[in-house]
Amino acid sequence: MMNLLYTLFVVNNKYKYTILQNRDNQTMECTKCHERKDISEFSLKNKKEGIYYLHCDDCRKYTLQMQYKYKNKAKDEYEIKKITNVIDCECGKSFVSFRDYHIYRHVNSQHHKNYISCKNR
Ligand SMILES: [Zn+2]
Ligand SMILES: [Zn+2]
Q1: Ligand nearest to the CA of 35
Q2: Structural domains counted in the chain
């Protein structure tokens, strides 16, 4: 741990970046995969202040892909709900509703009634 430079940046009192960096051969430890990689494997978050992302490019790419996938999945689920008219009730049940009767039926279901009576207790 001799040549390690440990720096804490606070930007706008809000974001904190810690850079764990080897002064001699400019390597940095990725906080995600914990591999020590060449500084060129990291992207600059803030060029002016020389602040690097804490995750290496590989990990960042992976995270972005996951976020993208998750976003798409959430969007798909929403589209399905829109088509099938699924209503998420606060009681925790989801039900399909094409007409008011379905809502009426749900509101009078035992599950929903139990929820309401617990809530009002
Ligand atoms: Zn990494
Ligand atoms: Zn309900």
Answers
A1: 1
A2: 2
